[in-house]
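Entry type: protein chain
Record version: 2
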Amino acid sequence: MKNFGLIGLLLLSICLAWSCTNDRSNTAEVKVVTAEEMETILELEDVQLVDVRTAEEYAEIHIPNAQNIDFNSPTFDEDVEKLDKKKPVILYCKSGGRSAKCAKKLKDAGFKKIYDLEGGISKWQHSDKIKLERKS
């Protein structure tokens, strides 16, 4: 019985030591934001706005001043490396799937502040919440 107590204490000590030394250098969180929140962030912060859809989708409709980095492009990783990891990034796609995957990649790559537009551009394209540029 005494051995079980010692083993338990040893395991507890190991777990505490591991949690204290675990590398937490990348504490970035991905925050899903509404269109209103995105507009506020764009006004208040120096952010990088990134559309992760295809070039064709981007040409049809996009948020002004967004740069297009196609998530499915073979050059995606190289293109993302051109972004500033210290500056906040707002991501969006059509419905939120690609931007969520991209957000995870950016987090893993060391980006500090990542925002993801809730529901993508399709959720907001028929509202007056965000300004859009459309193909004429």
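Comment: The first strand starts at residue 30 and ends at 33.
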